[in-house]
Amino acid sequence: MVNPHALPQPRLGPHPEHPRHRAGGRPPHTPLRPMWACRACGQPWPCTEARLLLKAEFATRLPSLSIYLAGLLYEAMHDLYHLNPHDGQGPRELFDRFVAWGPYRRPALEPQE
């Protein structure tokens, strides 16, 4: 029998193991699925600290960071929709949260000539 109040089980997409940096005995700034909150600070993941650590960790592999973030966006959309299908964040907000801050973002406004 399926419990209707149980949290959905995360799928087998990219494993959220980055950033790998740890400070002392504190947990890393990785996401806690399926809520996608930071394990270390409780903020929506990727938190500010995770973004800085990810940019440092992937500094020489920016395409890999973009691919990693896009894969996690896909997984987060699945998890978060199943947790809150009616009034959760929409695709644009999730894209901004997971991908838009990354290495290949476009400026908010096109430069004036």
> CA-to-CA gap between the ends?
64 Å
Could you give a short account of the major beta sheet?
2 strands, antiparallel
Summed up, the helix count is 3
How confident overall, as mean pLDDT?
Answer: 83
Strand content: under 5%
Helix and strand composition category: mainly alpha
Region (Disordered): 1-29
Protein name: Flavin reductase domain protein, FMN-binding
Organism: Salinispora tropica (strain ATCC BAA-916 / DSM 44818 / JCM 13857 / NBRC 105044 / CNB-440)
Summarize the structure.
With 113 residues, the chain is mainly alpha-helical.
Entry keywords:
113 residues, two-stranded antiparallel ribbon, Flavin reductase domain protein, FMN-binding, mainly alpha, 37% helix, 4% strand, single chain
Describe this structure in words.
With 113 residues, the chain is mainly alpha-helical. It has a domain at 31-100. Helix content is 37%, strand content 4%. It has three helices and two strands, in the order E-E-H-H-H. It has helices at 48-57, 62-83, 91-100; strands at residues 31-32, 37-38. Strands 1-2 form a two-stranded antiparallel sheet. A hairpin with a 4-residue loop joins strand 1 and strand 2 (37-38). Helix 2 (62-83) runs antiparallel to helix 3 (91-100). The longest helix has 22 residues, at 62-83.
